[in-house]
Amino acid sequence: MEKGRLIKGIGGFYYVDVMGEIYECKARGIFRQHNITPLVGDQVIISVTDEAKKMGVVEKVLERRTQLIRPAVANVDQAIIVFAVTQPEPNISLLDRFLILAESEDLDIIICLNKIDLVEKEVYETIVNMYTSAGYKVVLTSYKDNDSILNLRRMLLEKTSVFAGPSGVGKSTLLNKVDPRLKLKTGVISQKTARGKHTTRHAELIAIERESWVVDTPGFSALNVDFIDEGELSFYFPEFLPCLEECKFASCYHMDEPKCGVKKGLKEGKVSEQRYSSYLQLIQEIRNSRRF
Ligand SMILES: Nc1nc2c(ncn2[C@@H]2O[C@H](COP(=O)(O)OP(=O)(O)OP(=O)(O)O)[C@@H](O)[C@H]2O)c(=O)[nH]1
Ligand SMILES: [Zn+2]
C-alpha cells in the first residue's frame, strides 16, 4: 500500500503521484457502492498491481479537507488570482467576481498583479491600495523580474494553489518561471481558445518543488456569481465585515436602508467607492437572475 495524491482523472483512470512516480489506477468498485468519486487533489491509498508498468488500484480516499466546485479539486489551500496591470487592462468588476468566488469557497487569497514591467508604478498604485486596504494580500510580479518570481514561489511552498484569472494575464508564464520544468503552453491564445471551446478541459494538479502543487485553470472572461445568496454577498467583501454590526437591520442589504454600517464605512473611507459599486452591481445581478 502506498499513499499518494490524485493528480488527474481521465477515461476511468486515476493518475496518482507517489513521491514523484505516477501510477495509472482503477478505483475499487466499492467506491461506487458508497457513492464516493475520487477527486483530483484527493490524498489516496493505492495498492500497486504492476510496479514495472506503474499500475495500481485506488483502495481508499482519505478524508477531504476542502472541495472546490469549479474547478473540481479537493484539498486546495489558496487561490492566486492573477490580473495584468495592462495587456489586458485590469477589469475590476471581473477581479471582484474572482474574489467573491474564492471567498465563497473559503480559500486563502492572494491577488497577483502581473506584467508590472510594462507600466509605471503610478498606473497600478490605486488598485494595490484599494485591495490592500480591503484586507487582501497583493503581490506584484513580472516574468522579467526574478525576485518577484522567487517571492511568488515562496508563497506556493507546501500548499495547493489554484491559479485563476482572465486569459492572457500570464498565469502559465508565471508558473513556467516558478518551475522551468513545467513548460506550460503560453501565448498561443487561438489554440487554447479552440481547446476550451470544443473539449472539456479537466482539472489537473501539477507538482512543483517540495510538496507544492498548482492548478492552472483556463482563463475566464466572464464569471457568474448568481449562485450566491443575496443575503450572503456582503460576507464575501472582507472590508464590509467590521461595518455589518452597525447596520440597524439584521437583514440590511446596504442599499436604501437607514442606519447602514456599510454606507457609514463608505462615508468614512473604510469602504472604497469602487468596491461598494461592485457590490451594488452584483446584488442587482443576483436579484435579476432570481426573477426567471
Ligand atoms: N511584458 C510581460 N509580458 C508577460 C508577462 N507575463 C506574461 N506575459 C506575456 O503575456 C502573454 C500571455 O501569457 P500566458 O502565460 O499565456 O497567459 P495565461 O494567463 O496563461 O492565458 P490563458 O492560458 O489564456 O488563460 C504571453 O505573450 C506572455 O509572454 C510579464 O510579466 N510581462
Ligand atoms: Zn447595511
Automatic annotation (TrEMBL):
Q: List cofactor names only.
A: Zn(2+)
The protein's UniProt keywords, in alphabetical order, are:
Cytoplasm, GTP-binding, Hydrolase, Metal-binding, Nucleotide-binding, Ribosome biogenesis, RNA-binding, rRNA-binding, Zinc
Residue sites binding GTP per the record = 114-117, 165-173
Q: Which residues form the EngC GTPase domain?
A: 74-221
Listed Gene3D superfamilies: Nucleic acid-binding proteins, P-loop containing nucleotide triphosphate hydrolases, Probable gtpase engc, domain 3
Record note on cofactor: Binds 1 zinc ion per subunit.
From the UniProt record, give one GO term of the biological process aspect.
Answer: ribosomal small subunit biogenesis
Reply yes or no: does the keyword Transcription regulation apply.
Answer: no
Look up the domain of life of the source.
Bacteria
CDD domains tied to this protein: S1_YloQ_GTPase (cd04466), YjeQ_EngC (cd01854)
Entry's Pfam families? RsgA_GTPase, RsgA_N
Q: Which SUPFAM superfamilies match?
A: Nucleic acid-binding proteins, P-loop containing nucleoside triphosphate hydrolases
EC class: hydrolase
Subcellular localization is given as:
Cytoplasm
Q: Among its keywords, does the record have Ligase?
A: no
Q: Which GO terms describe its molecular function?
A: GTP binding; GTPase activity; metal ion binding; rRNA binding
| Record's function text | One of several proteins that assist in the late maturation steps of the functional core of the 30S ribosomal subunit. Helps release RbfA from mature subunits. May play a role in the assembly of ribosomal proteins into the subunit. Circularly permuted GTPase that catalyzes slow GTP hydrolysis, GTPase activity is stimulated by the 30S ribosomal subunit.
Q: Which family does it belong to?
A: Belongs to the TRAFAC class YlqF/YawG GTPase family. RsgA subfamily.
Q: What binding partners and quaternary form does the record give?
A: Monomer. Associates with 30S ribosomal subunit, binds 16S rRNA.
Q: Which PANTHER family match?
A: SMALL RIBOSOMAL SUBUNIT BIOGENESIS GTPASE RSGA, SMALL RIBOSOMAL SUBUNIT BIOGENESIS GTPASE RSGA 1, MITOCHONDRIAL-RELATED
This one is known as: Small ribosomal subunit biogenesis GTPase RsgA
Which species does the entry assign this protein to?
Answer: Natronincola ferrireducens
